[in-house]
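Priority: medium. Attachment 1 of 2:
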């Protein structure tokens, strides 16, 4: 672990952040006593992906129950833009 003074940390913060991003830990000291430690955050594991296949027939059944959109996307967006949303 590298140790740097507060003054040096202020001057070279960008460089210290780059070092930490590469996996180093940097200790900041004042009058020889540690006052802060810079280290990269712990990475959270990615969530597990869904292993079962998507049931397409069930999705189609849900879609078939939805009402048909009567206006075009352009008309809808014009209404939103022109203030109908308020």
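Attachment 2 of 2:
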């Amino acid at each position: 672990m590298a140790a740097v003074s507060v003054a040096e940390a202020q001057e070279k913060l960008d460089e210290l952040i780059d070092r930490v991003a590469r996996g180093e830990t940097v200790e900041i000291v004042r009058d020889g006593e540690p006052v802060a430690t810079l280290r990269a955050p712990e990475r959270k594991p990615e969530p597990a992906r869904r292993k079962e296949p998507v049931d397409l027939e069930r999705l189609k059944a849900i879609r078939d129950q939805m009402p048909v959109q009567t206006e075009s996307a352009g008309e809808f967006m014009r209404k939103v833009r022109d203030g109908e949303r308020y």
